[in-house]
Amino acid sequence: MDARFLYPLESCKIIHLLRHGQAMHNVAAEKDRNALLSPHLFDAPLTDHGHQQVENLRERVVSSGLLKRVELVVTSPLLRTMQTAVGVFGNEDKQQNIPSSPSIVALEVARDRNGVRPPDMRRNVSEYQTLFPTIDFSQANTFFHFSFIESEEDNLWRPDVRESEEEIFARGLEFMKWLWKRPEKEVAVVSHGIVLQHMLYVFANDCDKTITHELCKRFANCELRTVVIVDKGLSSSTAN
């Protein structure tokens, strides 16, 4: 084993990054990318295959003990991600063999690339609250403005302007800062491929180049990727 680094546990946080299962717009886009502009794909739900992916991952998460370790789940407030978050980490069916499940909160900062494409526009919060009674939508005043679910309607999605990759990177950076400040030591994030990639780009310069490509590659549907982030300042002071 080639062990290059050693850090105290108190300076580390484990983040599990999960892309949503296959959704209707993913299938449509494989045939025609222009389908992503269709209003019929508004807030696209999971496909039957996507639900099966979620069910399969749920079994792995339970059998591995990961469900018991995760203390908080942060999800994008879009239908496909919340279906995935609840399906993998929730316990809405009150299964007897699952004594407890982590809290699930929905934050705007975790949502997909914003604008132009109807699949990336969310529904009204009240509709989601009916569909997902165990998800907390009240986390306004959490951190910077993009994370707030400030209104019933989606005021962030713009029909004529697509969010830039620079903007996605900026909120990925703020999101990671917020996650680090949270008291939980093990957190799951259920989001979208491009958002998860940009969250990982935040740490790309701290990784060996041989690792960066593999770490930041495109996420498959329902792929779970785990990283450990380290406060090097804290680890240095501990070492001294």
Automatic annotation (TrEMBL):
GO molecular function ontology, one term from the record: phosphatase activity
Gene3D superfamilies (alphabetical): Phosphoglycerate mutase-like (3.40.50.1240)
A single GO cellular-component term on record: cytoplasm
Family label: Belongs to the phosphoglycerate mutase family.
The protein's name: Phosphoglycerate mutase-like protein 1
Species for this entry: Brassica carinata (Ethiopian mustard)
